[in-house]
Amino acid sequence: MSQYPDRPAGGAPPEAPPQPERPSRAVSRAAGGRHGVRVELPPFLACLAGGVVVGVLWRLLWSLATGPGDTERAVTGDGILAGLGVLAGIVTAALFLVRSGPAPARRFGVVLVGTVAGSGLAWAVGVLLGTPSLGAVGAAFLWPLATAGVTFAATGIAVFMSPTGPGLIGSGGSPVIGAEGPVPGDPGAGPPGQEQQVGGRQFHVEAPPPGADQDRREA
User: Fold this and answer.
1) At 47, which helix (H) or strand (E)?
2) From CA 180, how far away is CA 199, in angstroms rounded?
3) Engineered SS bond to 170: which of 29, 100, 176, 197, CB 3.0-4.6 Å?
């Protein structure tokens, strides 16, 4: 009797079923890049839309704050756009801290690029609507500076206010504390005989045998 039950009499052993082909590293990288574009495109487009809104508000507020014979119309326009840029930066940083996404560093870079583009778009929209050209070009680009400043300040406050150590801003906006944790046996590590999580690993804390300290002192 043949040792291969499924082999036909006098025939070759059955062929193994074909294995599914694994995607190459290049294909996986391309798929990851497309996913990153889909995830980060909405924040970038939101910054562009915000730039249009800032430009329209700039024109409306300038027309309300200046009169026909006002000799400081250009200076007033610069100040209004600068104030709108700072306000937009605070709002953008708050939204980023709440919705920083799966890759906060990448999202932050996209947001900064988007705010720079949004600032230029706001400037262009305001000028097209009739606002006089800026006397100080830097007033148009306070939006990205305010976004970066508020984000760094909020991150620093979260780091120093955390009772367990330094951390970073996570996808939900809350600080992600570093891997430092209680060492098994420390007062804050919990009672012996229970599993403790330290640095992402599980440890089982065992209590010392009875009389161990007494034997050590006698020795």
Assistant:
1) helix 25-65
2) 6
3) 176
